[in-house]
């Protein structure tokens, strides 16, 4: 027997020399699978090593002298009892932790692992859990059953938030689906095999949802632009106050057709005024950068913004700090002045409706609106050169300018006979 194998005693373990490099391993004669590892810095740890299912498994039991030799031998025998039956103690310990995973822990794991999720999506998930499931955050997933889910869904609906109720349950369903694939027992089988949100589908309890279809009609555009101009005129400070920036933002949303967050996130480095191009980052598409043409009116807006540039964002925040946020208070002013109810997304929807009414090709509309072409087989053979999109973009701009009374160079189409 070599000098590294002996009966562990306090005197012998205390007298072990530091290794010359890395670490040294010593073996106990009493429990042969028990080892003591000592690092070059003098840290001593009890380790158990044994083959489990034809694979070497190493289990760290504890540090010496905090764990005594007798305690180490007792724990080693306990873990060996599992190992001889084919159970990996490391997996068993991990499984025990996973078994008690709470809703809050699952949410954080989900948001951490699904790194491609947009920040707004992550914020939305947290908001739904905090606002409607806060009393469940510390509750283990295994304790959330179908009855609880059905009752909570009904309660949110009865509180007058039908759409929120459905969204909260979609969020919860996504978390349980994630848990099914993420948390396993020591044999690699999922802990959470049932998704309690299926009760809502089984009982057909989902609240009815009507997709919003609001657009600005042709006859409303003059009133809308007048209200936007009135908002802009009320702004005497382009940096510290927001009305003028909001007015530019609203026009940019309408004339570009971009999503709200993609407009708010637009940076000057993504703008080419000399070539009339922009390269927005489409956050909904896993941060895809695309190139789009700028119509003449969009160039005018951007040149005006450039004169009062204060930071990297086209639509800078108050005091020049960061990017602008959703301007709900100022939009409410435009609504009050014009008498027209609308949201930022309604402006995008109006852009798309106008494009369709002007007989612009479906592929051009999809590209201008940053929609995916991936599901269309024919689209795979079409290379949408940016210059081919310039004429359709300008055509849409001309329509808006004519409808608003700013020019007479475009024919106004009666959208859905609603003008």
From TrEMBL:
Span of domain Tyr recombinase: 211-394
GO biological process, one term: DNA recombination
Residues annotated as domain Core-binding (CB): 101-180
InterPro entries: CB, DNA_brk_join_enz, Integrase-like_cat_sf, Integrase_catalytic, Integrase_DNA-bd_sf, Integrase_DNA_bind_dom, Integrase_recombinase_N, Phage_Integrase
UniProtKB keywords: DNA integration, DNA recombination, DNA-binding
GO molecular function: DNA binding
Similarity-based family: Belongs to the 'phage' integrase family.
Protein name: Site-specific recombinase XerD
